[in-house]
Write a structure and sequence with these properties.
Blueprint (H helix, E strand, L loop, with lengths): L9 H10 L6 H6 L1 H6 L5 H8 L1 H11 L8 H8 L6 H10 L14 H8 L7 H11 L4 H8 L16 H13 L5 H10 L12
Helix pairs in contact: 5-7
């Protein structure tokens, strides 16, 4: 074990977590495996997994019954780890049961669209701000993100420092967007401090 003289298999990982590290909960081993490893980061098994990270995740993906329940700290660790390939990260995101609460904590902005597409991003007005600032428009993914939120959107609750230019661009994008639901359209406009000075010709 100390010299990593063993094959990296699910049964070996499970056995060492159980007998050496006392992690016996079957659900944790199956659905929160990487979170469990991060809790013993100084152990030989963690170092061995890091050296064979692609092989490790292939094993976990095959054994997790289509569900990974890692906590957010672990999720961010995976998504921000440059030694893990984009393909593995995308597959990992697709299996997540939990959500990323703050998209600004995901360093690789290419993964933002994956989180949106897989609906693994918690809704917040701050996340909406970050995404709009990144994409410079209300993309189809952003519109879906807004429309699928069951709560009330309050743009005035954005705690990130914004400027008038952002507010004006966002407001303009909302006005020009015909795919937002009537409810979300109204919530955004009513909670914005931008006044629309536009006349409509309805000949």
């Amino acid at each position: 074990y100390e010299k990593s003289m063993y094959c990296l298999t699910y049964e070996n990982i499970k056995s060492m977590l159980d007998h050496i590290h006392g992690i016996q909960d079957v659900a944790i081993v199956k659905h929160q495996n990487y979170a469990a490893l991060l809790s013993i980061i100084d152990s030989p098994i963690y170092g061995y997994v890091k050296e064979n990270i692609a092989e490790y995740f292939e094993i976990i993906f095959n054994e997790c019954d289509g569900k990974i329940e890692d906590n957010e700290m672990t999720i961010l660790n995976v998504l921000n780890d440059e030694s893990i390939s984009d393909e593995i990260k995308k597959h990992y995101i697709s299996l997540l049961s939990n959500f990323v609460s703050d998209i600004s904590q995901v360093n690789d902005h290419k993964l933002w669209s994956v989180l949106l597409e897989q609906k693994k991003l918690h809704f917040s007005e701050n996340n909406l701000y970050y995404c709009f600032a990144e994409y410079k428009s209300l993309t189809a993914l952003l519109v879906s993100y807004i429309n699928s939120y069951a709560g009330i959107i309050d743009i005035s609750s954005i705690s990130v420092e914004t400027d008038d230019q952002f507010k004006s661009k966002f407001f303009g994008a909302v006005i020009r967007c015909f795919d937002l639901s009537d409810a979300k359209y109204g919530q955004i406009l009513s909670s914005s401090d931008i006044i629309c000075d536009v006349s409509f010709d309805i000949d």
